[in-house]
Amino acid sequence: MDPSHLTAVALSVVNSIALLIIVSVGLAVIFGMMGLINLAHGEFLMLGAYMTVTFYRLGVGFWIAAILGALSVGLFGVLIERCLIRFLYGRLAAMMLATWGLSLIMIQVVTIIFGTSTHSIPTPLGSFKLGQYSFSQFSIVVDIAALAMLGLVYVVFTKTRYGVMARAATLDPTMAGAIGIDVRRLNMLTFGFGAILSGFGGALLAALAGVVPTFGQQYVGAAFMVVITGGAAVLTGTASASVLLGGVQGIVSNATTAFFGSISLLLVAIVLLRFMPTGISGKWGRRF
Amino acid sequence: MNTLLDKARTLPGRIGLTVLAVIAAFVVGGGSSAFLAQQWALWIIFGQLALSLTFVWGYGGIFSFGQAALFGIGAYAYGISSINLSPITGETYSSLLVAGAVAGLFALLLGYFIFYGNVGELYVGIITLAVTLVLLTFMSSTGSPEYHVGDALLGGYNGMSGIPALGSVSAPLNAGFQLVFVVALAAVIVLLLDQLLRRPFGRSLMAVRDNELRSQLLGYDVRRTRLTAFVIGGVVAGLAGGEFAGWGQFANPAVFSLQQAALVIIWALVGGRRSLFGAFLGAIVIQEIQTVMGGTGGGLTPIVLGAIMILVVLVAPEGLMAAVFAGLRRLGLRVGRRPITSNAAVADLSEHRAKDRGQLVAEDVVKSFGGVHAVRGVSATFPPHSVTSLLGPNGAGKSSFFNLLVGRYPVTSGTISLDGRDITHLKPHQRAQLGLGIKTQVPSVYNEMSMRENVWLAAYAKKRSIAEADRVTDSVLQDFGIAERQETLVGDLAHGQRQWLEIAMVVAGHPEVVLLDEPTAGMTREETSRTVRLVHDLAVGATVVVVEHDMDFVRQLDSDVVMLHQGAVFRRGSIQELRQDEQVLDIYLGRAVTDAPAT
């Protein structure tokens, strides 16, 4: 094995880890802070991708389009929290079913508006060569973006007033309410923040793959596995589960095909949950 | 009307209904067009798929999003089996059995990891959904001809074609007879499931759904119960999938799509999670809506389905059938409940008590939570026919020690033995089967069941015989003075009454060792002294350990006292001795303990 081959394998493994992070961190914020598994998460990614494509076509440039796309998904998330989720707090199963219903509706509405044809935007930046292997520079950007998203989550939840209150509300909602924290408002903001992250993940994916109404379904299964393997700790759980599952997936994909990569991800996750039913971070106690 | 419904509830009544359904199918199948018969057959097949979800979710509390996947596995299994086997056997019914078996086997494998890992309720939904999505990817990418099983090409995205129809190869069932076959199979499955739910297995399944902890403490193997139910649901879904493949003579990966998985949930939601017939009603109603919409505004169908899903969750969380039943009940009709029938003679409870066993020994038991040493080296012997009180202020380690005895926490080190047998590493339900009866601090009972059903489940857990359990239940209900209120729903009881009921359940399990955690919390003065008498009564035949911090109750009990302080045994003696001990008083009054405890 020559060094350029090793580097290429390492790069693609890092890439599959980064991809898992960008598709799951929004879901993880909502799950970790609110205990809610958002079954419309795939459609939040999809919406982020479509909004980015739309803004991009208005000629604002990829990064502006991605940020606008993410923010519009955040706005949509706040709307959904106000109109639907807030009636269902305390009923976790009902929230899952309601968000599943939402996902069916979102797919169909997007189909009606945008049609079933594939929308795409050219991958920004060029490519570089490592020995005989060619890499897109954008994949390095995705790696950096994944780290940046984790960094943003860290900063928001530890350095801002909102973040500290949100963590307090997660640990003990009654006590948080008793000391004057508006838990309902926090839930709305958390759902919105999670939606922004999902939207941004979708925006990055839009530059990597063709955007269709069922776009989210390709990623959402992996995102679910990351979040439940990671457990309730938003940052450390997501990061460690992404590294583990993405690492296995990347290595297996390189050795065989992408198809066996996804199967290996599922198998590792299920076997892991047999022994750690509350996820990797389940025993850590500190929920962050 | 009442009598008619009651008649329909007896076993002959149910068989009658089943036969009636098949005859109805005959009439419809023979009298109407082949197209209609085809359509109804599909709807009944879908109804059976919905039924599998109603069973595992509504009755078993298993939040499975993977019934569609099991259905799809059944469809492909039928396809592979019939394409390869029907030229040899000349029929395809055997392939239908293969479909059920393969789906059941898959459910067994998947269920093992899910239930034996004690994965949380919501995780079950997510894992089953993720498995469905992976199967979708898997079957979609088997397009090239190299993916085949025998003569059957998997066919990738386009699916498997050329699957033989149900029946014999020379003369497959026509549309009418296919409908009759599908209805007959569904009716038999409904009948069997209904009977199963009246059997002890069904009761314990519903008990697990209602209160997992209590089921464990009574000695039911929660994991095996759930796994069994999931496998049964898998077989029912797989049989439906096999029929589906025979019906359309093809199978494609769309059966593994999120939309299909959502449809199954919607059928069950609309029909109601607690009604076996409702599953069929839900499937038929939704499919009819889809058919109608398909004619006018096909593009809107998913939006309507999504809206139905959200609306049912918001407005009628128990489903439409449950709403209808609630309406009927308001009109004075008795519907919806499955009573257990029994009328055995009342027996004397004391005959079950006299036992010479029940020696519970803890040796140097340690429990640490991270850096917190909740229990640091407790050794205590609880001899047969005695009452021992575990006393100590808040934080002394009483509850932790109690939970170690029960088996809810694993010990960090040390051993626990019952009658010389090491039980340190046994699960709570295994300890319960060995004769440990446990009453938890917060009453843990089955709120959705009647008092009688609660006590019966406790008795059956130990006896494993319906007749015996009936007898014990009657006598316990008498002894505890709750016989006349036995049909009251437990959820409607006051806190103190639930405490009393839970103690009755412990007694009904005929335990050799009784562990009571703060039994008198929330009881009236009269109930408390009744409990004191009961504890003494129990100690005639069993070892009783009571955890309390209510000094008054302990004084009334007048038993041997083990006092814990900071996770270790501080004193052991009679309550009189302890009351004269300055250091004990120091601890209870919060005064600083000046010198080390004498050993």
Structural class from helices and strands of chain B?
A: alpha/beta
Largest interface: A-B, 42 and 43 residues
Helix content of chain A: over 70%
Q: Work out the strand percent of chain B.
A: 5-15%
In short:
Chain A is mainly α and 288 residues long. Chain A has helices at residues 3-34, 41-57, 62-83, 92-114, 137-159, 161-171, 173-178, 183-206, 217-230, 234-255, 258-275, and strands spanning 127-130, 133-136. Chain B is α/β, with parallel strands linked by helices and 599 residues long.
SSE layout and pairings?
The complex is a heterodimer of chains A (288) and B (599).
Chain A: H1 3-34, H2 41-57, H3 62-83, H4 92-114, E1 127-130, E2 133-136, H5 137-159, H6 161-171, H7 173-178, H8 183-206, H9 217-230, H10 234-255, H11 258-275
Antiparallel strand pairs in A: 1-2
Chain B: H1 2-9, H2 11-31, H3 34-59, H4 67-89, H5 93-116, H6 121-140, E1 148-149, E2 152-153, E3 160-161, H7 175-198, H8 200-210, H9 212-218, H10 222-248, E4 250-251, H11 258-271, H12 276-296, H13 301-315, H14 320-330, E5 360-369, E6 372-382, E7 387-391, H15 398-406, E8 413-418, E9 421-422, H16 428-433, E10 436-439, H17 451-463, H18 466-479, H19 495-508, E11 513-517, H20 525-539, E12 543-547, H21 551-557, E13 560-565, E14 568-574, H22 575-579, H23 582-589
Parallel strand pairs in B: 7-12, 7-13, 10-11, 11-12
Antiparallel strand pairs in B: 1-2, 3-4, 5-6, 5-8, 8-9, 13-14
Helix pairs in contact in B: 2-7, 3-7, 3-10, 3-11, 3-12, 4-5, 4-10, 5-10, 7-8, 8-9, 8-10, 11-12, 11-13, 17-18, 17-19, 18-19
Description:
The complex is a heterodimer of chains A (288) and B (599). Chain A is mainly α and 288 residues long. Chain A has one domain. In chain A, 74% of the residues lie in helices and 3% in strands. Chain A has eleven helices and two strands. In chain A, strand 1 and strand 2 form a beta hairpin. In chain A, helix 2 crosses helix 3 and helix 3 runs antiparallel to helix 8. Chain B has 599 residues and is an alpha/beta fold. Chain B has two domains: 247 residues, no CATH class; 241 residues, 3-Layer(aba) Sandwich (Rossmann fold), CATH 3.40.50.300. Chain B is built from 23 helices and 14 strands. Chain B has a six-stranded mixed beta sheet with strand order 10-11-12-7-13-14, with helices on both faces. In chain B, strands 6-5-8-9 form a four-stranded antiparallel beta sheet, covered by helices on one side. Chain B has a two-stranded antiparallel sheet with strand order 1-2. In chain B, a hairpin with a 2-residue loop joins strand 1 and strand 2. At the A-B interface, helix 4, helix 9 and helix 11 of A face helix 5, helix 6, helix 11 and helix 13 of B.
